[in-house]
Amino acid sequence: MSREHVAGAPIISMETQQELSEKQLLDFRSHKRDILRWLATFGKNPDKGEGYSDTTIEQLTYQLGSFYRWVWEQGGQYTTKVTPDHADAYMKEIAYGDTTNGHKSTVMKCLKRLFKYRRHELGENTEWDPDFSFSEPHSKPQDYLTADERQAIREAALEYGSVPAYNSLSPEERDEWKAHLAQRFDKPKSEVGPTDFERANGWKFASLTWASLDTGFRPIEVKRARVPWVDVDNKTIRIPREDSSKNDENWTVAISDRTAEALKRWLHERENYERYSDTDALWLTREGNPYGRQALRRLLHRLCEIADISVENRQMSWYTIRHSVGTYMAREEDLAAAASQLRHKNPETTMKYDQAPVDDRRNALDRMG
Which of 54, 80, 213, 247 could form an SS bridge with 7, CB 3.0 to 4.6 Å? Predict the structure, then answer.
């Protein structure tokens, strides 16, 4: 049975699917679909019809799935009726677990949203007021690329995946590179030719990385990015409301001259690949799938490896790029510019970038003597 999605998130996980009979699965799918649809449409502010973002819905579907499976295991039978007592017992078990306070806080928020749905949509009078809470993660960006690291990542994106020019190789070297490209493109070595060498030196990774370094793309925005977003003539990326991560308004984001040129080259190159023939997705993996958080994290780690940037003791994810955009845009311009570039609706969200980057503070120490 194919998996149905709400706001890009699967309604039923494979773990849940394996635990239920066919009839139970149909019932639970309907039950959870109703929950996720309401939360995606009304959950954040029921009076104004404002729902949660796709990223939050993705958290909700997995955390709620884990909660319901726990309830079934404890009670010894399938049910969709969950109570505050269930939530209290579950959170007590989570509290003793070996996870971060940030994760525990996320689980608690997901359960609160579930009971908010039951109260507003099902008319239940049950309130869930937990007896304890967990400290939130620090409000400032956990990590960001420094100015030098941003430049190094830009250069690494040009190098990533590149191969020597076909005609510059000796027959022995060419044979070795053909074996490499045969594996990379999943085709017989005998069919690898000059066009495959050109393809390996394409602009996909540079355009994706450079656009993110300019716009601070969230992973979900990379996943949703479409060709019509790109306006290379005006050096902007236009994200329509229906594709916006927060789904509240249209956004127009500036990009640099060199990023516009990289995107222009990629759009021209993209037309030659069959996997893009029936989609306007801007970037796809070599398997033909949109980029997700894990794929982007792997890409960034590979770029850091090429750029000789250590990732040890750092939380290096695609959000690290976004945090660097906010930090340096706030420094070079102001918080208003950072808010616009990062597509923040709430000004308070941008306040965490109201800080001097570490290199500025180091320079200040040198001047202080």
Answer: 54
User: Going residue by residue through the chain (369 aa), what tens digit of pLDDT does each one get?
Assistant: 446 888 777 899 888 989 999 999 999 999 999 999 999 999 988 888 888 888 788 889 999 999 999 999 999 999 999 999 999 999 999 999 888 887 888 899 999 999 999 999 988 877 788 888 887 554 555 688 888 999 999 999 988 877 777 888 898 888 888 888 888 778 899 998 888 887 777 899 999 999 999 999 988 899 999 999 999 999 999 988 776 655 556 788 889 999 999 999 999 988 878 889 999 999 999 888 999 888 999 999 999 999 999 988 888 889 899 888 888 888 787 777 777 787 877 666 666 666 656 666 566 656 654
Instruction: Provide the residue range defining the domain that includes 75.
Output: 5-121
Whether the predicted model's global pTM rises above the 0.70 cut: no
CB count within 10 Å of CB 319 equals 21
| Residue 295 DSSP SS3 | helix
Looking at the fold, whether 155 and 68 belong to one and the same domain comes out as no
- 93 and 223 together in one domain: no
Could you give the residue ranges of the DSSP H alpha helices within 44-186?
Answer: 54-75, 84-96, 101-121, 147-159, 171-185
Tokens encoding 253:
């984001």
Q: Are strands 230-231 and 251-254 parallel, antiparallel or unpaired?
A: unpaired
CATH number at residue 220: 1.10.443.10
Shared domain for 117 and 152, answered yes or no, is: no
Is 57 in the same domain as 111?
yes
Same domain, 205 and 330: yes
211 in a structural domain: yes
Residue 201: is it exposed, middle or buried by C-beta count within 10 angstroms (0-12/13-18/19+)?
A: middle
> How far is the CA of 217 from the CAs of 6, 29, 161, 209, 327, in angstroms?
22, 32, 22, 9, 14
3 state SS of 219: helix
- Same domain? For 46 and 152 the reply is no
Does residue 132 lie within any of the structural domains?
A: no
